[in-house]
Amino acid sequence: MKLFLDKKVQQVNILDERFYTIDNKIFYPSVTTVLNAYPKGFAFEEWLRNTGQNSKQIVAEAARQGSVVHNSIDDFVKGSELTWINESGKELYTLLEWQMICRFVEFFKFVDKNQPFEAEQILFSHAHRLGGTTDLVCMIDGERWLIDYKSSNAIHTTNRLQLAVYKAMYEHLHKTKIDRYGVLWLKASTRTDKGFMQGKGWQIKEFTDSYEKDIKLFKATRALWDEENPNYKPKNLSYPNTLSL
Question: CB–CB of 24/6 below 8 Å?
Answer without folding.
Answer: no
